[in-house]
Amino acid sequence: MIGQLGRVLLLVGLAMAALGLLLILAGRLGLGHLPGDISWRGEGWAVYAPLGWMILLSVVLTVLLNLLSRR
What pTM did the predictor assign? Predict the structure, then answer.
């Protein structure tokens, strides 16, 4: 039981590290803003809604989870 928990935590940690690396690389490649992202700026405030990223992430996760559930 403890061994399985250790493996799961290790895999989650590796997945988070890989995701962090991807985000760093995306920022350096200029992929910070996708088409569809909305930003409002006012005097002393700003709102940013990354709709493009939300749609892209939703599609990628849907495909990935569908592929994993077919096993």
Answer: 0.55
Q: Which of 69, 65, 68, 48 is nearest to 57 (CA)?
A: 65
Q: Determine phi and psi for 40, rounding to 5 degrees.
A: -120, 135
Q: Give the CA count within 13 Å in the CB-facing half-sphere of 20.
A: 6
CB 28 within 8 A of CB 15: no
* In the chain, where the domains are located: 1-32, 33-71
Contact partners, residue 39, CB within 8 Å, separation at least 6: 46, 47, 48, 49
pLDDT at 67 over 80: yes
Residue 47, beta-bridge partner list: 40
